[in-house]
Every structure is written in structure tokens, then in C-alpha cells.
Amino acid sequence: MDRHVSLAVIGAGPAGLAAAVSAHEAGIENIVIYERDEKLGGILNQCIHNGFGLHTFKEELTGPEYATRFIDKVRELGIRCETESMVVSISPQREITVVSKRYGLRVVSADAIVLAMGCRERPRGALNIPGMRPQGIYTAGAAQKLVNCEGYVPGKEVVILGSGDIGLIMARRMTLEGAHVKVVAELMPYSGGLKRNIVQCLDDYDIPLKLSHTVVDIKGKRKLEGVTIAEVGPDGAPVPGTEEYYECDTLLLSCGLIPENELSLTAGIGINRITNGPFVDDRLETDVPGIFACGNVLHVHDLVDYVSEEAGRAGRHAADYILSGGAKKNPPNIVKVTPGQGIRYTVPVTIDLGNIEEDVHVRFRVGAVYKKVTIKLMCGDKELTSKRRTIVVPSEMEDVILRKSILEEVDGDIRVEMTGGGL
Amino acid sequence: MIMNRRNYDIVIIGAGVIGCSVARALSRYDLSVLCIDRESDVCEGTSKANSAIIHAGFDAKPGSLKALLNVRGNQMMDQIAEELDVPFKRIGAMVLCFCEEDISVLKDLMDKGEKNGVEGIRLLSREEALELEPGLGDEVYAALHVPSSGIVCPFELTLAFAENAYHNGTEFSLNTEVTGIKMLPETEPHTANKPKDADEAAEDIAEARERLRSGTGYKFMIDTDNGSFVSKCVINCAGVYADKIHNMVCEPSFSIVARKGEYMLMDKSAGNTVSHTIFQTPTRMGKGVLVTPTVHGNLLVGPTAYDIDDKENVGTTRDGLGTVRAKSSMSIKDIPFNKVINSFSGLRATGSTGDFIIQEDEKVKGFIDVAGIESPGLSSAPAIGTYVADIVCRILDPAVNPYYDPTRLGIPRVAEMSVEDRRRLVGQRPDYGQIVCRCEEISEGEIQDAIRRPLGATTLDGVKRRVRAGMGRCQGGFCAPKVMDMLAHELGISYAEVKKNG
Q: Is B396 left (phi over 0), alpha (psi -120 to 50) or beta?
């Protein structure tokens, strides 16, 4: 063992920074944040557009500005940050192996760990798009990094597959850089991104969005020459005769984000196959004691404000764990939280009713677009809380708060149900 | 590549695994050898897109070159892997049949295998097969087990041959496409470099005349888009274009068809789906769709087999990938197709004779074809190298290279090291502690090595083939900008000039 820390936070994106700040505020001093990049702030550093922080700071910030608020706080609190340091494994006993140029390879033990590694983009290979493999195909995030951080615009004639938020943002960004974005094709019959991004990034620039369309062929041996887009039927297969060829030198992909949990697997943490993130309880603790998860490594968020809020809770719970030595105040009374019809998953998957100290956020996504629905949290026949929504879409995370006072009355498993909307 | 001479004993056309294996085998001798390729890197054709299997050799027709060289190549692999620091695992293979009638096919394969000298083949019942490979499909009726089959990294094998050949004196000229081959007039001696004075000229002429008399003089002028070269022998390792190269100077005697094979590669978390290479009973078009772990721990399924006209068309197709999915699912249940991280296709150089074509041309002496190297070409590569070297020895009767060193050390695979070894290495050279490719855990130091070595990487794909940066589950989404930056910096070029391949 080279070193001992109270709390190791893995990742210095918005989740890791917020978790470290809240753990510090809860009384933990010996904290280290490990970050593989050379800078703090994570993916926010390349998100130079505005629209961040409306919930947290009640103002519209750019990504770097939003990150700076937290970075300044981390600095002010004197929290140690080790950049260009990559954690390569975690043991179930919370021993962390970390490598860096500056310190070489070290093994660090921690009383608690917060996982905040974020997510990655689904690459072309994972999409099974047929065709050639020329230069000119980028995930939207990689292109965003090239344009915004390296000052290199990868092409002039652009087609975008997938309407995830980064793809929409990049449609606008490439247009502002003088490129011609010809079309955004989306496999699903609904957009993968936020409504406001469709309006501000596509509609405002007259960029067409073709729903239920996908790329069926890619042309070009060394450099991309063009792509063929076709409509897809309800079975997901291309409809013959609907093919349209687009000449282009750049194809950007924005087809989903995947939490980066390879490190979690080294610690033996159980992973939910729906979210690709760890199973956690209401304290955001994984099934390996003392290891907590938050932000996009837990489940993909669409707003950074929700990441910061969630990470703040994870940091607090990790602090409690450290201060109590992992001991619970009361005997545990664990109940399950399960998704009902039309709902894909829930975070958390369990709640310890014996040790409720604050309100519990139940977060989830729906599997399709539903209009005029009522979302209810039920325990048996008893309705714990409910809310009406005029529309729910897969691209927007839902958040229902279970008040501490209500949870004190609960005595069984909790089910998230959705009614109306044709269900 | 700086060329300080233009005439060679031997020019090898093609720097795939065959050309590079031949180059390495020839580097044992005191010969001047030049290996040329139209691409900017070695291993840019069929060698980079195949099943990565070292076949046992039970499939080829007994008495054929394929049978001889496959079995011999397989036997050579342990030593090759050791000498050249190439990952190779002898994991064994199973050939599945799906009905009682096909048992006879398995028995035929077993017979052929025994005739070819493959050892240890056993016929297994479904139950016995399931013990070795629990994930087999419900329709599997019986299987052959072939313990000597193995898996290798085809990129690293090709690079290792090339680097070792280079180390022993072979020259490489990449970005060099052959545009024509001419026979030099037999009566005139030729040297491409102008002699410095009259005495030297006279000496050269006398020497050349002598060589011509003995049949070993400079006979070929190889014209390329990068200048012309003169040589005594030409070795044609041009893959799908071997017929075109042959016909530049010889009478047509064979043709090469590109037979496409499409594959899907899955994440390392799917690598333990099978522990053997799982074949199906072969058909006229090839060995069928296989399911195999790769030597780096991924899962590979494929290939399809269909002939195409365009020898540049390495695109995948929806139908092809669908076929791979359907056929592989017969062999193994529950293949995690949701873990596919890449799909690709390669072109087999299928010759018109049905066997490898490895011989000196009957009329054009000194012109050696190494053509029609389809499967089991990779497996046979080490043996093809020495087989061709023997042909060359009969023509040129060279002395041995006194400085020949058969060993090559690969780039350190830092992520695979023990904690203590890794700690020591990173301590010695901190760049090995800076992770650039997070998925494969590849460090800045390894990428520097990939670019700075002789025959180093000049493209993103070149880096990927050497050290696997960008080969993982994000497929370079995160590390590509950094690797582009490193390539630009190390090669002194701009961002816009950094290429993916070619």
C-alpha cells in the first residue's frame, strides 16, 4: 500500500467535483479526486455552448463556466486533485491502482469511493452500419473535441446520424464553423435529444430532421464520399426504395451514450443491463459496500444540474459511511423499487426504509413517447405520490421525489406505475 | 523512406504477412532485399482483416501445398511467437456438425487431418463436446476436437516479420505502387546507379556479364510511382493483385478472385463466450462461419464468403452481417451481439488453381509467384517464408547473413504487466504511466514507440494495429484526438494531414 485516503473520487467531471465538495462539506478532509485528463471539468470543457446551470445557479452558463464554479469550490476547500492519473482497477476491499506520469504506479486504499467516470459514445462499430470504413466518421463528441478544443473542423459537408443532444449541438456548431449540415437522421420515430436543442440547433438553421431513418451504406475507401440514408419500417429494417444518397465528407454519430463501468466491474460491482450502470440503493451505494456511484456512470443524464444534485447526495452518503465506519444506525429494512409498464428502469433499485435520513429521488426513463400520463409511486395498493405529465419522452429523465415523511409510512416494495397515454 | 540504392538482389512486391514473412526468411541470407507496398504501412490488405487463426491443417487436400505449408506453419508458430514476441495461443478448435449424416464429413476431415500430419484429432459426441464448450447450440450433433489450432494477432505477426527483416537489413519502400515490370535485355548489364569512374564501370560490367552467364544477373526493371528498381528476382506477394503483377511480365497462367468475408468483433467482456475456435463443417466456399476468442480477449464471429468484382471493396453489408449473425448463432447460443464494437470485411485472394501458387515462373526465370494465398494463408505464412527462401537459394545460392538475428522485441504491453513490473517500467519511463486509450489502457509511451520505431506508424490505424489504441469499446472516440495530436507532433505534420489509413 502506497497511501491511504478517506475518500477517493474517480473522475473530475461535474459528478466527481460535486461529490467531493459535498463530502468535504459533510466533514471529510482527506479526499483525493483522480482525473485521467490533464484538466478538471470532464466533458464540460468541450461543451462551449450555453444552457448549463439553469436549475443549479438560475442562470445560463457555458460548460466550462459551469465546471469552473465547482473547480473554484474544490480549490477553495483545498481538495487534492490528481490529474493525468488513470485508475486502472479497484478491488472489492477498496484498493485502487492508479497510474500517472508524475507519480508512476501506486496502490491507494480508501475508506470510501465515489465512482464518477461518466459515459462514452456508442461508436460506429457498435451500430452495425454497413459499408466502407473511410476517414471522416466521428462520434459527435470526438468531433466536438476536435472543433472546440483543438481548433480543427473535420469537414465541410456533414450528415449526422442520431439525434442525441451532442449530435444536435454539433449540427449547430458545424454550421457556425461554415460547414453545411445536410440532414440529421434518427432511427427512432422520436428524437433522442431535448426539445430545446431541436429548436435551437436544427430548426433555427433549417437543418432537416428525418425521423425513422438510418444510414444503410457508407461510400469511400480512404476518405468518406457519401452515405445512403433510408427510411426504416416499424421492424427497424430499411424500407426498399426509400434510399437517398448524400454526398458528404463527414458523418457524425450521436446514437447513444454508455456509462463507463469497466472499472466498476474490476471491483465486482453489479451492473444493471438496462442502464449499463451499477445497481444502487437510495444512498447511491453500489452492491459493494463503501463504493458509491453518481452522474453518467450511474445512468445517462440529460441535464448537468441533475448530475450535480445527484453527486452531491452521493458525496454526503459517502461521508456518512466514512464517519460511521460503515455502520447503519438502525437495523436495515430493504424494499425493492421496480419499474412498471412503459418504464425502463429506476435508480435506485432498493430503499433501506430502516435508515431514511432524507427525501429519496426516484429517477427513470420511459421506453417510448406517451402523452397525458399519470406517474404514480405505489406500495401495494397504496399511492405514495403521483404526478401528471402532458408528455413523457425517452430523451428526458423523470425525477419523482419520495418525501421522508411518506417513506416512514411505507412497509413494502415500491412500484413506479404509469397510466393513461394509451397504456 | 530514403532510398540510397536502386538495384537489389530481390524485390518483394507486397508487404502483407506473406511478403513480410518472405522478407524475414530471406534476411537470413546475404542478399539485398527490397520489399515494396503501395500502402503507407505494412499489413494494409488481407493481412489486416481475417480470422486471425493459426489453423491446424485438417481441411486442406492431402498432398497440396496448402496442406504441407499449413501444418508446417502451425508447427513453427511456437518458435516464431517466442522469437518475435508475438501473442499466440494454442487454444484448440472444434468443428461442429448439425446432423447424423454429417458425421461422415467430420470423419473425412479427421482422415485428411491425419494424412496431413495433424496430431490429436478426436471425434466427440454432443455430450463430450458440451463438456469442453458449454455454450454450443442446441442443434449441434457432434464435433471434432483439434488441439493444435491456435489464435494470433495478424497485425503483430506481420509487423514482427517486417521489423525483424528490417533489423536484419531488408529495406522497405512503402507508398510505392508497381506500375510495370520489364525484362532487361539479356545482353546488356544493368545497374541503376551510374558508376563513379571508368574502372568501376568496367568492373560492374564484367561482374554483371558473369552474373548473366550464370543466370543470376539483374533481369528485372520494376517501375513504380516512386521510381524504378532493378533486381535479379521478383517475388510476387501482391495478394488480390498477384495476377495483375504476374501478367506484367509473365504469360497469364492464373487469376485471382477477391472473395469477401465479413466479420463482427465484440467487446472483451464477451471474450469468454467460447474457449475454442468453433468451426462448422466446411463448404466449397470456405471454412464457414466461425466463433472464436481473439488473442487479445475479444470475441470474433464471421466470415461470410462471396466473390466480388471490385478488389478495393472492403465494405460490410447488411445481408452479410445478418448471415454472420444467423450462422454463428447455430454454433453458439446466446452470442452477445449487443456487445459488437466493430464490423469489418476482408478479401481472400482466391486463386484459380485451388491451391497456393508458389513457384518460379516456367518461362520468366527469377520471377517467383506467391499467389492465391487465401485461407490457410496466415497459418502458412511462416512456412511460406522458408519455402520461398529455398526457391531463392536454388536460384541465387546466397551466403548466409553473418549478422542475422532471429529475435525481435515488441512494444511493451504495459496493461498486461504485473503491478510490480509495471511500477518499475513507469518509474523508468514515465510516459508509460500516461494512459491515452482508456479502453485498452494504452499509454503515451507505447504510442510514441509505435510511431518512432523503424517502419513506425504514420496513421491512426497504424497506431491501432501496433498498440491497440482505438481498438477498444469506444473505437477511438476519446483517444483519437490525442493520437492525432501525437502523430502530428511526432511526424511534423498538421492535424489535417493526419490520416486514418492509407
A: alpha
Compute mean pLDDT per 10 residues along chain A, 423 residues long, and list them.
Answer: 94 98 97 96 97 93 98 98 97 97 95 98 90 95 95 96 96 98 96 92 97 96 96 93 98 96 96 97 98 98 96 98 94 96 97 94 96 95 94 94 94 95 79
> Which residues contact residue B380 at a Cβ distance below 8 angstroms, ignoring those fewer than 6 apart?
B66, B69, B70, B72, B73, B356, B373
For residue A283, give the nearest of A407, A157, A421 by alpha carbon.
A407
| Helix (H/G/I), strand (E/B), else coil: A262 | helix
Structural domain boundaries in chain A: 1-121+257-327, 123-255, 330-423
* Cβ partners under 8 Å of residue A250, min gap 6: A136, A137, A138, A143, A154, A155, A156, A157, A158, A159, A174, A179, A224
> Cell numbers at residue B257, please?
478472385
- Shortest Cα distance, chain A CAs vs residue B154, angstroms: 19
CA distance A21 to A54: 20
| Domain assignment present for B402 | no
Q: CB contact, 8 Å: B474 with chain A?
A: yes
The CATH number of A1-121+257-327, from 3.30.1360.120, 3.40.50.300, 3.90.45.10, 3.50.50.60, is: 3.50.50.60
Ordered DSSP codes for B126-170:
HHHHHHH-TTB-TT--EEEEETT-EEE-HHHHHHHHHHHHHHTT-
pLDDT (tens digit per residue) in B54-92: 999 999 999 999 999 999 999 999 999 999 999 999 999
Residues B324-341 have a mean pLDDT of 94
Rounded to 5°, angle at Cα B246 from B245 and B249: 95
**A99 at the B interface (CB within 8 A)?**
yes
pLDDT at B210 over 70: no
List the single residue in A121, A132, A146 with the smallest CB-CB distance to B481.
A146
Is A243 in CB contact (< 8 Å) with chain B?
A: no
pTM: 0.92
Q: How far is CA A300 from the centre of its chain?
A: 3
DSSP B75: H
A148: three-class secondary structure by DSSP? helix
